[in-house]
Amino acid sequence: MSQCSTDQHPWIIAEGLPLGLKVMSTTRFGGVSRAPFEAFNLGLHVGDDAQAVLENRRFLRAKLPAEPLWLNQVHGCEVVDADQIEHRSTPFEADAAVTISRDVVLAIQTADCMPVVIYGGGQVLGVAHAGWRGLAQGVLSELIQVMAQKVGASDHDLKQWQAWIGPCIGPSAFQVGEDVRQAFLTQSPRHQGFFQPDDAPHKWRCDLPGLALHALEGLGIKQSKWCGFCTVTDEQQRFFSYRRDGHTGRMATLAWLG
Length: 258
Hints:
7 helices; CNF1/YfiH-like putative cysteine hydrolases; 16 strands; globular; five-stranded antiparallel beta sheet; alpha+beta
């Protein structure tokens, strides 16, 4: 994933992706929202002025082939089939979406959680919102299952699929308690390696992207990577971060089959 030409561009574009897959992640820059949401906030649920958010979304829409499918994300595992959706005034309550259609734009909003894009060999596309809760509950497994069923993919087919994780909280910044560690250790003792002792008592540093990459491999997807951008520690502070700032906006990772 590479940054666009200026340090304060409204988005960064994922490069090195398979032909036919388009992915971009927005940044904090270029919008009209005021502090503490400055400036390119795309979240209607965070307390920002709605008209400012809608103006930001209109600016984004002009750069896309279609209006994004906005979800009401709840840190769960519900998957929406974007190809079965008719026009509705309120977003679906879900944390993942799939499509097999060209130019259907799937969107995930984040401010530290992981936006995960899964590309099924030119046949199917899926996106997921994965914080530690969603990851532990199996949102990636649910998404891959829906994608595979949609196109009749086999376990052999999954080996050719690819996954990409956008800007999110990195392993050096994600301090968690014992409850988070245990949520993963009860699934597998192999998850121990993704938690390092923190200086604070009873706290750990959690490698959330590492846990996701491990989960993807276990689900059959061998080709996956994290973009490497930490929303908390990014030197240019290009990204919204709930962990760093508390009351803040949301950026979006958008993907479509082009």
